[in-house]
Amino acid sequence: METVRITDVAPRDGLQNEPDPIPTAAKIRMVAHLVASGVAEVEVSSFVPARWIPQLADAADVFDGLRSLERGETVFSALVPNEKGLAKALAVNAAGDRRMIDKLAVFTAASDTFARRNTNATIPETIERFRPILATARREGLPVRGYVSCVIACPFEGPIAPERVADVCGLLLDLGVDELDLGDTIGAGTPETLTPLLEKLYQRLGAGVMRQATLHLHDTHGRAVDCVRLALEAGLRSFDGAAGGLGGCPYASTAEKRAPGNIATQTLVRTIEDAGYATHVDITELDQAAATVSR
Ligand code: HMG
Ligand code: MG
Q1: Which domains does the chain have, with CATH numbers?
Q2: Tell me: the pLDDT tens digits for 165-189?
Q3: 249 annotated active-site
Q4: Which ligand is nearest to the CA of 182?
């Protein structure tokens, strides 16, 4: 049976919008349960200024607290928005005798308004920021995931044309990212809107893009499951979820609407396995991961 790769982003995307401070120890327990669940990758935290995301100001402490955890093949990743964040991530890796961060993630958007609100930069400016990050990551032997937010719609600009998403994906691939991560930031996706996007990516970037891309769904209208089924049919084999359906980007919230949670990894796993693929993920550990912070 073919295996589909699962990344749990709960400790990062799941927690970044939580208003109450969550103790570092609870985050560490959450990651331990995610490792025990068998997911391929855990997105542990973000090296962003505390002013921008107060909840993740303890990123280095979370990684420090995980140093003695046996994690086998599980990949640990972290978001870095700029060279300052990269330096903080590399300091974590230099601190012990064991590398704690196996992969970096940079993030931009297919909407200029969202890019400005989320990163204080235009799309081309974010790409220029990533250039030195990619060069250093390459020297350090760290693969890089390139997120594109608002691949279906932007909370401020509305629907986003697939052509614009393909343009930004092309820029990231030219830069040398190892993986594209397609973010449906506000959970607007439906099979009707995802189909033209995947067709456009296929047409512009070639068939290989389906194996280089991860789908990152938030779940507003309960259509994320339909999108997962469609993406599997189109050839995607990598998905993000957050245990318990936690999450959302604070900079995707508007006065009327708080940004929606990620698709629950439990739902993602059941959907993928029902479609005839293996994930090797233990759902009870995902439940326990979510419970560590909801308690
Ligand atoms: P800025 O304010 O323009 O930064 O923010 P700056 O370069 O002008 O620096 C301002 C101050 O911050 C300086 O300090 C810097 O040293 C410091 P001061 O001189 O004033 O004392 N600084 C830093 N400190 C710690 N770590 C750093 C760092 N960088 C600068 N890395 C910046 C620009 C990109 C930093 C900011 O806009 C930012 O961090 N944005 C990220 C917001 C965020 O984390 N959003 C959520 C993640 S994305 C998401 O959720 C979407 C996703 O899930 C996919 C999807 O669903 O679509 C991935
Ligand atoms: Mg997200």
Answers
A1: 5-294 (3.20.20.70)
A2: 999 999 999 999 999 999 999 999 9
A3: yes
A4: 1
